[in-house]
TrEMBL record, chain A:
GO cellular component: cytosol; nucleus
Name of protein: Bola-like protein
Database matches in InterPro entries: BOL2, BolA, BolA-like_sf
Organism, scientific name: Triticum turgidum subsp. durum (Durum wheat)
GO biological process terms on file: intracellular iron ion homeostasis; protein maturation
Lineage: Eukaryota, Viridiplantae, Streptophyta, Embryophyta, Tracheophyta
Family classification: Belongs to the BolA/IbaG family.
Region called Disordered, residue ranges: 76-97
Coiled coil regions, renumbered to chain: none
Length: 97, 114
């Protein structure tokens, strides 16, 4: 087998020093295919196209053997779960007079 | 064949310049509009259809030189590749995310009016 999930992880980790990285093998029979979720402060201030280019560049040596990659590139701030809005439940729980 | 890693061959670059500026929206994909050969290409076709914009598609599976030339031209390693107003917009993930955020609609509107 050509490229493995570990190869992809190593290449992305080396290039982007991510704070969070999940690589999923999504090959559905048509060749090596990966889903990459990466959080890195190197994405700060970069547009989506640039962020994806950074990941693509990291993977360039492997791309010849990869059929497809799906990339999710977030900054640490974006990766934080959004603060929950005040639960409407409190109001809803109040019995109607 | 073009030299490896030497960027885009001159003839290919001219041709691609013409193709991407000849139409407002051009999608280089695997398969055709009516018969996409890959889920990622299918997704982008569906998005463009839902937005009701006219778009041209070119099948990179039918032309190996085009397929290789485009990768160098866009510095983008995979397909589909979406071009709007002569400029590379992105692949499937970027297009999908931009569609969800409304940025794609905005870019397309701007292109249609330009």
């Amino acid at each position: 087998m050509g490229v493995t999930k570990e190869d992809v992880e190593a290449a992305v980790a080396a290039a982007l020093s991510p704070t969070h990285l999940v690589v999923t093998d999504t090959s559905g029979g048509c060749g090596a295919s990966y889903e990459i979720e990466v959080v890195s402060d190197k994405f700060e201030g970069k547009r989506l196209l640039e962020r994806h280019r950074m990941v693509n560049t990291a993977l360039a040596p492997l791309m010849a053997e990869i059929h497809a990659v799906s990339i999710k590139a977030l900054t640490p701030a974006q990766a934080q779960p959004k603060p929950q809005p005040e639960p409407a439940a409190a109001a809803a729980d109040k019995p109607q007079a | 064949a073009a030299a490896e890693g030497g960027g885009v061959a001159a003839g290919m670059k001219d041709t691609l310049d013409k193709v991407v500026s000849a139409h407002k929206v051009v999608l280089f994909m695997k398969g055709t509009k009516d018969f996409p050969q890959c889920g990622f290409s299918h997704t982008v076709v569906q998005i463009l259809r839902s937005l009701d914009v006219p778009f041209e598609t070119l099948d990179v599976l039918a032309n190996d030189a085009l397929r290789q030339g485009l990768k160098d031209y866009s510095s983008w390693p995979t397909f589909p590749q979406l071009y709007i107003d002569g400029e590379f917009f992105g692949g499937c993930d970027i297009t999908l995310e931009a569609y969800k955020s409304g940025e794609l609609q905005e870019t397309l509107e701007k292109a249609m009016c330009s």
